Structure formats: C-alpha cells, structure tokens
Amino acid sequence: HALKQPMMRAINDVSFKMYKGRGLAVVGESGSGKSTTAKMIAKMYAPTDGCIEYRGRDITTIKKRDELMRYREGLQMVWQDPFGSLNPTHNVFHHIARPLLIHKKVDKRNKAQLKERVFELLEQVGLTPAKETAEKFPHQLSGGQRQRINLARNIAVGAEVVLADEPTSMLDVSIRAGVLNLMEEMKVEKQMSLLYITHDIATARYIAEDLAVMYV
C-alpha cells in the first residue's frame, strides 16, 4: 500500500480584514507564509480550509470567465522582482496599453485616446517625459522605473486591492523612498486597499496603518 503523505501546513490560523484607503503590512521571517497568503488572495493557490471573501463573496465561488476578469481587474499584484515582471520584447507603451484594452478601459479603435491615456498614466507615476518613456524597453529602465510601470498598470485597470510582495527589496536604497511615496499616494488618492509584505519594519510603519506579524 502506498504510504499517505503527511500534510504540511503552509499557513495556519491567519485572519485579517482590509479596508479602502488603508494599508496592512504583513511582516515575518522567510517561510512564515506571507507570499503564500497573497497568492491565495490572488487565486494562484486554493486554500484547503477557511474562507477568503471579496466584497462579501467567497472567492472560491468565482469561476466564470467574466467574473474572474472582474476579480482580477479589482485585485492586482506588484511582484518583488521588477526585472522579471515585464516582457523584455515589448516596450513600455505595450505594457500599459495591454491592461487598458483587455479590461476594456479604452476603445481599441480609438488609438488617439489609448495613447493619451497611456501618457497620462505614465505621468501619474512620475515617468516623464511620457512619450519618450513609452518608447523605451524594460532593459532601458531602472528597477525603480520598472516598479512604477507595474504601479501604473494597477491604476490603469482601477484596482481596488493591491498586493505588494516586498516591492522595494530588490531596489537601491536611494530609490526605495520614491516607490513607497507613490504607493502611499495611490492608497490615499485612489482609495486602494494595500497588502504590503515586507521584512522591513521601518517601511511597514511608513506605509501601513495596520501591522500583522507571521511566525514560522
């Protein structure tokens, strides 16, 4: 008889709420389940027990294509690695225009409107001159600039919840503040709910109103 594999608990007894215009920082040592928590919220992993609710609905019941599209529109992620999160074969314009078109924020037949909206988003995240930035490819950008592109994509689709998994850990100390300030502005001005995963207590205190600690 095949031996039954023992179950490993990646996350146990985790409970929290998120609110509009408010940040929750999740801190803890490596292996405590911080990223796994975010990936379950993003429907990359399915929980074996418990419930994750979005607008009062259990997300495991969100299965139809149009419902999944709306969920992914409302919930976006910012990854730790700014260098691996953009396709090196496409320019910045493509990376901003694509979510606008996929989520029907702009009519694909109206190229002038699309271009105007892309430039507007680049300016909102401090990437100017917008026209020159839009023509660049990822390898021509710094890590901080790439994270700003990722944040512009979140704004483009009108994200209500942003899951930021150590978004500044791979950036130079000199440019971390700029990215954190932008995330803080987005949280307040766009009334986004922010889940901020980090090892850095100092940045957690800066950007989040609430703090949760996870232990191995």
Structure description:
By secondary structure, the protein is α/β, with parallel strands linked by helices. The chain has eight helices and seven strands. The protein has helices at residues 34-41, 65-74, 92-102, 111-124, 130-135, 143-156, 173-189, 201-207; strands at 23-28, 53-54, 57-58, 75-78, 161-165, 193-198, 210-214. The strands form two sheets. A five-stranded parallel beta sheet has the order 4-5-6-1-7, with helices on both faces. Strand 2 and strand 3 form a beta hairpin. Helix 3 (92-102) packs across helix 4 (111-124) and helix 6 runs parallel beside helix 7. The chain starts with 22 loop residues before the first strand and ends with a strand. The mean pLDDT is 92.
Provide a compact summary of the structure.
This protein has 8 helices and 7 strands; from the N terminus they run βαββαβααααβαβαβ.
Any descriptors?
216 residues; alpha/beta
Count of helical regions: 8
State the shape. globular
Strands across the major sheet, in which order? 4-5-6-1-7
Largest sheet: 5 strands, parallel
| Element-level helix/strand string | EHEEHEHHHHEHEHE
Q: What is the percentage of strand-forming residues?
A: 5-15%
Q: What are the segments in which pLDDT stays under 50 over at least 5 consecutive residues?
A: none
Q: What does the secondary structure layout of this molecule look like, with pairings?
A:
Layout: E1 23-28, H1 34-41, E2 53-54, E3 57-58, H2 65-74, E4 75-78, H3 92-102, H4 111-124, H5 130-135, H6 143-156, E5 161-165, H7 173-189, E6 193-198, H8 201-207, E7 210-214
Parallel strand pairs: 1-6, 1-7, 4-5, 5-6
Antiparallel strand pairs: 2-3
